[in-house]
């Protein structure tokens, strides 16, 4: 009897993600290097976004119209104004483009935006943890090793330009990659009373000035 070490036989793909730019408006760059060439296969990354970060579906649609990125958003309806504590998780299926310099390398980028968080106690920032993407392959005319790849529950075609159904596959055995940590500036809970008082004072002052200007310069019939 011969025992086959599937974990050793299935060489791991390399997945990296980078958050480019600064502030609340970033760009998520995903790069994948497969263990072997994937000729004829579509390669995608399934990215899980926690409530603190989101993709703007209107911005995504504009980018796709100009062929600058290809992705599918689940759910496709996103509340852009909701704060982090009222938002929900999102899934992004990001179609990767082949790298001309490497037959096994793929990459793609998509704009992401951070949400406003509620005030915290004792710390002026909150954390948003972005897990490593899951690599998916769709080989409509090829064959994937059953020991290394298993069918994935992804209800979308192999391409964002197609409507034909396709069976996606994911790795049975893949390493746990490091998570990306984002720091979001937030207000301090102990400053709530001061902020409320100043907001009320400013609102009253501005309302009074507007009313005074209307009475002085307004023409009433």
Index terms:
alpha+beta; 6-stranded antiparallel β-sheet; single chain; 221 residues; 18% helix; 3 helices
Topology:
Layout: H1 6-9, E1 14-20, E2 25-33, E3 42-49, E4 53-54, H2 57-65, E5 71-74, E6 90-95, E7 97-99, E8 102-114, E9 125-130, E10 134-138, E11 149-151, E12 169-171, E13 180-185, H3 192-217
Antiparallel strand pairs: 1-2, 2-8, 3-6, 3-10, 4-8, 5-6, 7-8, 9-13, 10-12, 11-12
Protein name: Phosphatidylinositol-glycan biosynthesis class X protein
InterPro entries: PIG-X/PBN1, PIGX
Organism: Notiomystis cincta
Short note summarizing the structure:
With 221 residues, the chain is α+β, with helices and mostly antiparallel strands. The chain contains three helices and 13 strands.
């Amino acid at each position: 009897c011969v025992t086959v070490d599937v974990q050793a036989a299935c060489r791991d793909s390399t997945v990296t993600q980078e958050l480019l730019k600064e502030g609340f408006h970033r760009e998520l760059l995903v790069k994948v290097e497969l263990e072997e060439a994937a000729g004829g296969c579509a390669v995608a990354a399934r990215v899980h976004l926690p409530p603190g970060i989101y993709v703007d579906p209107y911005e995504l649609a504009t980018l796709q119209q100009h062929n600058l990125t290809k992705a599918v958003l689940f759910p496709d309806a996103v509340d852009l104004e909701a704060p982090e504590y009222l938002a929900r998780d999102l899934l992004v299926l990001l179609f990767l483009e082949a790298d001309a310099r490497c037959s096994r390398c793929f990459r793609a980028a998509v704009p992401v935006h951070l949400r406003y968080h509620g005030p915290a106690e004792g710390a002026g920032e909150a954390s948003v943890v972005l897990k490593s993407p899951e690599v998916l392959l769709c080989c409509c005319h090829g064959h994937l090793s059953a020991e290394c790849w298993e069918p994935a529950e992804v209800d979308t075609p192999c391409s964002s330009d197609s409507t034909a159904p396709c069976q996606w596959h994911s790795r049975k055995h893949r390493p746990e990659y490091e998570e990306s940590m984002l720091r979001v500036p937030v207000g301090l809970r102990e400053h709530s009373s001061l902020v409320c008082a100043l907001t009320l004072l400013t609102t009253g002052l501005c309302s009074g000035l507007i009313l005074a200007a209307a009475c002085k310069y307004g023409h009433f019939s």
